[in-house]
Amino acid sequence: MRSIHPSESDGDSAIKATDETTPLLAVAAEEPSAEPIDEPIHKTNSQDDEGEKPLPVGQIFLLCFARFIEPIAFFSIFPYINEMIHKTGNIPEADVGFYSGLIESLFSFTQMCVMLGWGRASDRFGRKPVLVFSILGVTISTALFGLSQAIWQMILFRCFAGVFAGTIVTIRTMITEHSTRKTQARAFSYFAFVGNIGIFVGPFIGGALSNPAKQYPSVFGNIQFFKDYPYALPAFVTSAIGATGTITSAIFVKETLERKDRNDRTSKPPPMSVWEIAAYPGVGIVLWLYSHVMLVAFAYTAIVPVFLFEPIKLGGIHLSPPQISVVLGAGGFFQALWLLIAFPRLQHRFGTVGVLRACSIVWPFFFTACPLCNMFLRHHLRVPFWIVGSVALVVGSGVAMAFTGVQLALNDISPSHETLGTLNALALTLVSGIRAVTPASATSIFATGIRTQILDGYLAWLVLILLALAFPVAVSWLPTKAEGKLKKQETDEA
Predict the structure, then answer these.
(1) Beta strand 257-261 pairing with 37-42
(2) What φ, ψ does residue 261 adopt, rounded to 5°?
(3) What are phi and psi of 7, to 5 degrees?
């Protein structure tokens, strides 16, 4: 089984439609002015031009590469974090799950504290400077994490990485400003695909390069640095990718936030407050659905590396770090295929609501597969283990489409395109708060289950299954405006 990462989020801002016939981004075509400019406005396109506007593939590619960095940095530590805590931090094996969850919870709490600030900064200073500065911060903090020699250092440097959460909001906002109602599903399928490729690559980097002096003694065995810092190499490789993304974003990414002539005195209503946006019809329900999806995903993401690490007799699978990296990476690969190939077609045919309903049906079975796999191993039933495990890995990974689905629902329920950035920042703040609490809670429940052998160590899986069973109820309340169904003509043209 592999960790589901909301790409992000993942998981970030996207596109919004005012209704079935109004384009996502309203026109803001104005005559250029030679006067000084200082007031930011969102780049938009007219309703007449929307159908003709293609995706700017070059810019989308650059933004997707920038997106690629975050899941690599996030997931590359998963294959070795438990071993790192146990051996470097001198933590008992039974308590490893708690500390791994604590580290990720504090990382997310830090993100929650800074998320709205980054959103405001991108509105004031531009998307590009926030993007470049954030990637640079992630690059530095990832390298420092690999040099950690104690638990407090792991926590400190992981929180330092959480400070640079500007990439999360900014990249999705920029993709939003490059897209239209008809192209948003395709644009965000690329975005999600690259994020899951990052999930695929990250664990392989972490598993293949951790403790290189032991894994590759003929190459690194005589290098004392890698004996003293056994987890530095994967961190440095990840940082090198981040440095590349920093440079390409600084040189080639174009700013998407335009600015309006300060002498323009056009009368406009005051901007909506955060509370007014949250109270707008349908927004609360979509935020709840968004939060529910992320709650389940974060809990699973926190539990599955520990599940793969723990002994079979306690309720785990007992894999080595390289083997964990293979499972996590393979899951990310299959998620990427679902998002790139299946999601755009399914969303155009059945709407966002149809995709979410399908995911809500599969999710409980996906979670049930994990305790089943352990049960088969306990009874030495290898064939059923491989069958169930393989089906869950390949087919079950399709539940990742729910992450992109709830993002499109959020886009469509936004009161206007001017409130989209704030709405996404609000959603991501809620998500960061959930992720601040969920990993430690989920791994603590898992640790309690395996320590006391409640339900043979399957307590955490029961909780996840119950949460997944509540998901269809939330989907049934999705507002019509957020169902993401295109008219037949729009579907044919798309």
Answers:
(1) antiparallel
(2) -55, 125
(3) -60, 65
Tokens 């530590």, residue located: 77
pLDDT for 237 beyond 60: yes
Q: Are strands 257-261 and 7-10 parallel, antiparallel or unpaired?
A: unpaired
Distance CA 130, CA 121 (A): 7
Half-sphere exposure of 126 (CA within 13 A, CB side): 14
User: Is 43 exposed, middle or buried, given 0-12, 13-18 or 19+ CB atoms closer than 10 A?
Assistant: middle
Mark out the alpha helices in 84-146 (DSSP H runs).
96-125, 127-146
pTM comes to 0.70
Domains in the chain: ranges and CATH:
7-27+39-46+53-262+274-493 (1.20.1250.20)
- Cβ neighbors of 341 (< 8 A, separation 6 or more) are none
Looking at per-residue pLDDT, the higher value among 280 and 98 belongs to: 280
The length of the chain, given as a count of residues: 494
Provide the token pair at 392: 């869950």
User: 3-class SS at 77?
Assistant: coil
**Rounded alpha-carbon distances, angstroms, from residue 74 to 8, 341, 393:** 9, 25, 20
Of 9, 7, 14, 11, the residue nearest 413 (C-alpha): 14
What CA–CA distance (Å, rounded) separates 280 from 277? 5
Q: Which residues of 194-230 are buried (b: 16+ CB within 10 A; e: fewer)?
A: bbbbbbbbbbbbbbbbbbbbebeeeebeeeeebeebb
Mean pLDDT, rounded, of the chain: 80
First-residue to last-residue Cα distance in the chain: 35
Burial of 313 (0-12, 13-18, 19+ CB in 10 A): middle
Look up residue 41 and give its DSSP letter.
Answer: E
Structure letter (DSSP) for residue 178: T
Q: Collapsing DSSP states into helix, strand and coil, what is residue 53?
A: coil
- For the chain, helix, strand, coil in percent to 5 are 75, 5, 25
Instruction: Name the amino acid, one letter, at 224.
Output: Q
Identify whether the C-beta of residue 403 lies closer than 8 Å to the C-beta of residue 347. no
Q: What is the pLDDT of residues 113-130, one digit of tens each?
A: 888 788 778 877 888 999
CB-based contact 72:5 (threshold 8 Å) = no
Q: Is the predicted pLDDT of residue 156 greater than 90, yes or no?
A: yes
